Amino acid sequence: MTDYRTPLSKVRGLGSARSGVGHFIAQRVTAIALVVLVPVFLFQLARHGGGDYEAARAWVGSVPGAIVTLLTMTAAFYHMRLGLQVVIEDYIHKSGTKAALLIVNTLIAAGLWIAVVYSVLRIAS
User: Which of 19, 74, 75, 81 has its CA 20 to 30 A from that of 8?
Assistant: First the structure.
């Protein structure tokens, strides 16, 4: 007997959504990436920016600066989206509200990421 579900859950079709492990791994990978990327981003920005707006803008517009900035912000926004998704799924019980908040969460994360990509590309050009 390998199925440990109750008879009622079998009838209702309830069970594993089969996405929990992937979500868990994605959160951990983005967290590890941020542990590496955030200090590199801040160190490079402080080193090349030097408190001057034009120097910071020139660093973000350079190829290494753009790459580090985009990698850091991509990991940060994806990690943010995953974390808020867990909070919404765990604490919001109305299905309509939950669905709406999950959509808003994804749209905000995507919108922020698009704004960063546009800004970096605009500065780099």
Answer: 19
How far is Cα 16 from Cα 37, in angstroms, rounded to an integer?
34
CA atoms within 13 A on the CB side of 120: 21
CB atoms within 10 A of CB 64: 10
Location of structure tokens 């704004």: 115
Whole-model pTM: value is: 0.82
Task: Return the structure tokens found at 119.
Answer: 């800004």
d(C-alpha 72, C-alpha 87), whole Å = 23
pLDDT tens per residue across span 45-77: 888 877 788 888 999 999 999 999 999 999 999
- Find out whether 59 and 67 touch, Cβ atoms under 8 Å: no
Contact predicate 25/78, CB 8 Å: no
CB neighbours (10 Å) of residue 120? 18
Instruction: Decide if 69 contacts 120 (C-beta within 8 A).
Output: yes
Neighbours of 19 (CB within 10 A): 9
